[in-house]
């Protein structure tokens, strides 16, 4: 049997097949090596002694490494009551400031819009009325949404329904009517539905159980709106990663400063989700409404000049930082080359029993 196999393997036909397979294997191996080398070069993986450190490229999640929706200008209306105003916070900017700073930081122009100006940030417009229930805010929005047509609405409604114990079983119907109106008044809008914050206050309103019930309705309503293919995302303010009693202020209802920062983070995550789902669309053009809210005050020349100067300072600081990073990168390459040369010299010295060379200087 062995002799038969040897005879067959030596035939010209079989020998040609084996040779071709070996050639294909060799070409494939070289191809894989080239692909790996290209990947390492493309991702600029950090250096270490003995070769590049193997790191995965990772998933470039929209909004972290680049602007949302290819740099879409976001005209944002924050709608709600005292929490939307940032009450009990040190600057009355509330969650709006961290949301705006993050979005502009990644390259999206932002203009908060609304009939009121609350807080010490320049772009501080909003639609918020302390103590207002959901149907009241619906009525207020009828005066501002059709005029300003935001393409992103941040809604935090329902707390005062709970504090005033106003028809909690039918809350979802009032909220659904509000949602329906948002898209009728501003058809290009995306809605971020915020669930309510916990409350441990018991002396006046004792609304903790009602907040739990309203949040349950909001989550169920969000599922219904998803089935209807509405551009709506949920900003979950409660739960393990949400707001906890220790994040509330002295009144045990509004967030403290850390709580507002957390609200901003949660809303940002919801906006990223909206972008990932393809919800974000350009806002309808409205005369007199600019893309950049910091520069939307032509009547306030001093504020506009200050905003432009601040922008110029930020750009100069970014350029300075890029220069410093490039210098650090060059110095690291030089130092690591010295380290590699030292290791090679040390290895040669060890084989020849010579004294080891001095290590490279960090200076």
Features:
single chain, 363 residues, alpha/beta, Rossmann fold, seven-stranded mixed sheet, two-stranded antiparallel ribbon, 10 helices, transmembrane helix, Carbohydrate esterase family 3 protein
3D architecture notes:
Helices cover 50% and strands 9% of the residues. With 363 residues, it is of the alpha/beta class. The protein has 2 domains: 68-295, 3-Layer(aba) Sandwich (Rossmann fold); 304-363, no CATH class. Strands 3, 4, 5, 6, 7, 8 and 9 form a 7-stranded mixed β-sheet that branches. A hairpin with a 2-residue loop joins strand 1 and strand 2 (51-52). Helix 5 runs parallel beside helix 7 (171-185).
Summarize the structure.
With 363 residues, the protein is an alpha/beta fold. 50% of the residues lie in helices and 9% in strands.
Q: What average pLDDT do the residues reach? A: 83
Kindly give the count of domains.
2
Number of helices: 10
Give the DSSP E fraction (strand runs of 2 or more residues).
5-15%
Order of helices and strands: HHEEEHHEEEHEHHEHEHH
Can you tell me the CATH superfamily of the largest domain?
Answer: SGNH hydrolase
Architecture per CATH nomenclature, i.e. the level-2 architecture of the largest domain:
3-Layer(aba) Sandwich
Cα-atom radius of gyration: 30 Å
N-to-C CA distance: 73 Å
Overall 3D form: elongated
Low-confidence stretches: 39-61
CATH class bucket of the largest domain: Alpha Beta
How many strand units? 9
CATH fold naming of the largest domain: Rossmann fold
Query: Structural class, please?
Result: alpha/beta
Taking the sheet with the most strands, its summary is:
7 strands, mixed
In percent, how helical is the residue content?
Answer: 40-55%
